Amino acid sequence: MTEASVPDPPDVRFGLGEALAYGLLQGPTELLPVSSSGHLVIAPWVIGSDYVRLDPELRKSFEVALHVGTAGALVIVLRDEVTTAVRELDGRRIGVIAASLAPPAIAALTCERLIERRLGRPEVVALGLVAGSAAMAWADRRDSARERGDAGWRDGLALGVAQALALIPGVSRSGSTIVAARARGFTPLAATELSMHAALPVIAGATVLKGSRLAKRGLEPGMRSAFAVGTVGAFASSLASAGLIAHRQRGRGLKKYVAYRLALAVAVTVAARRRSAHKVGATGAPARRLGSHA
Fold first, then answer.
1. Which residues on adjacent β-strands are paired with residue 146?
2. Is 262 exposed, middle or buried (0-12, 13-18, 19+ CB in 10 A)?
3. Rounded to an integer, what distance in angstroms lies between the CA atom of residue 292 and that of residue 294?
4. What dihedral angle (degrees, nearest 10) is formed by the CA atoms of 139, 141, 144, 150?
5. Contact assessment for residue 21 and residue 233, using Cβ atoms and an 8 Å cutoff
6. For the chain, which residues make up each domain, given as ranges?
7. Which pTM was predicted?
8. For residue 121, what is the DSSP state?
9. What's the pLDDT tens digit per position in 4-54?
10. Which of 37, 51, 176 is CA-nearest to residue 120?
């Protein structure tokens, strides 16, 4: 059998309601520094959804479809800034875009399948949430004075490395790029703007990559509807969330997001250990105390 002809398990169910729910979850979790990919690992795990049993490549393609909805919303919200950026495009700005694209592109082409298959677990998400929180808490204390127009190719490269690291669920693309920009001396407002602008080229690149793979593989009619509904939900929730960020939250501190991420990491860790202990007890094997080592 060729790769395109291998079907998903027949008992796997992924309904339109669930696709819409994930789309609605996408907007705020993508635009706020809390990790949309982490939430898309945690949410189906919590409810015991069949989504986690879908082929990892298909799940990632669905997540890219959600990002397309987010990108469409961002283009609308940032239309004046995008238009101005296109008109003022010069060698320096092209260098910033190219440098921000290179690291995530390399990481996606070389490591994405490994990440999809090995790192999409709640325990990994919890670690990513904690690590990202530590970086955000550090960045929030930095003094900074640079504005968005000061960005050069080195700043673009820093944003690109941050976006490559954000392929790990729980890290957060917006969070990591804000940290990178703050580390490079940008003001909180400029860092937030750079984070949102850096997302668009990467989302476009991911769409092309995943779209070409899906075209070769093919997509069942039922999944096409789920992809469409999820994308529409992501567009709507991103549009609402982007408006909230644009008018109320740009340039503010990261403490509340750090607190939320840490609380979520603790909750996921506790739930994962309880489930593990329950499974051990159900098999009749002696359960180890939490924190004990083999």
1. 186
2. middle
3. 7
4. 10
5. yes
6. 14-275
7. 0.83
8. S
9. 444 444 456 688 999 999 999 999 998 889 999 999 999 999 998 988 888
10. 37
| Token couple for 263 | 């609380």
168 φψ region: left (φ > 0), alpha (ψ -120 to 50), beta (else): beta
CB atoms within 10 A of CB 146: 17
Question: Measured between alpha carbons, how far is 273 from 104 in angstroms, rounded to an integer?
Answer: 33
284: left (phi over 0), alpha (psi -120 to 50) or beta: left
- Compute CA distances 111 → 104, 117, 148, 206, 223, whole Å: 10, 10, 31, 14, 25
Asked if 247 contacts 115 with a C-beta cutoff of 8 angstroms, the reply is no
pLDDT of residue 294: 35
In eight-state DSSP terms, residue 245 is I
- State pLDDT tens for residues 210-249: 777 777 777 777 788 999 999 999 999 999 887 777 655 5
148 compared with 136, residue with greater pLDDT = 136
